[in-house]
Amino acid sequence: MDEVEGKHLNYMDRRRQALAEIKEAWNLEHVVQDPGLREVYEDLPRAAVRLICCALGKDVNQGGILRLAEAFRLEAVDYEPPYGEPFDFTAASGVETWQPHRWIDPSAAIEQAKENGYTVYGLTLTPTAQAIQSVHWQFPCAVVLGEEQKGISDEVAALCDAHVGIPMYGMIPSLNVSTAAAIAVFEVIKAYCNVHPEFEPARNASRQLLNLTEVEYRSNL
């Protein structure tokens, strides 16, 4: 074994240990703050929202988007299958065991979503794109995400029912795909909760935060 290979193995061992420690710490905190949630979590309803991901280019984006989907309890994430490279959920922090996901060609995923009554929104800047803050979201829905540098291909964009864009105020014309996905998901879930007020966070702390926000809002009316 040469020195470079040895360093790589040491890095992988440290990474596995760090991920295991993160997962253990999360589980301990989870049990203390929300006793019994682990046992019922799989039965909680999920938001009727899917993410359909074209090739994302970086493992950190794949993992970040999976973690985002689990944080908002989305129905599923569809990933374009990796070609020639192993698939890695870097930055997912172990949520792959909680968040439904699969590998499927984006065009096929869009067609399946439409067959099941989903409205499909492409997160892409086109001449017909609507600003994300003014979209009237239709549910169930799917949001299509493109590769960080190239975005959504013309072929995939043509399959979407509508295009949604995030207005940019600075010199840089685009966002990291995980950041753009987070903005989109936040807007979608905000609209979904208006239609489905029974959809609540699984964790007590987030439920209390929402309740406090609602009380403050009503007190200012």
Could you describe the 3D structure shown?
The chain is of the alpha/beta class and 221 residues long. Helix 3 packs parallel to helix 6. The chain has a seven-stranded parallel β-sheet, with helices on both faces. Helix 3 links the parallel strand 1 and strand 2. The protein starts with a helix and ends with a helix. It has seven helices and seven strands, in the order H-H-E-H-E-E-H-E-E-E-H-E-H-H.
Supply the key terms.
45% helix, single chain, alpha/beta, 7 strands, 7-stranded parallel sheet
Shape: globular
**H/E element order:** HHEHEEHEEEHEHH
Radius of gyration: 19 Å
Proportion of β residues?
Answer: 5-15%
Question: Widest sheet: strand order?
Answer: 3-2-1-6-4-7-5
Summed up, the helix count is 7
Helix content: 40-55%
Strand element count: 7
Average residue pLDDT? 83
Task: Please give a quick description of this structure.
The protein is built from 7 helices and 7 strands, in the order H-H-E-H-E-E-H-E-E-E-H-E-H-H. It has 221 residues and is of the alpha/beta class. The chain is globular.
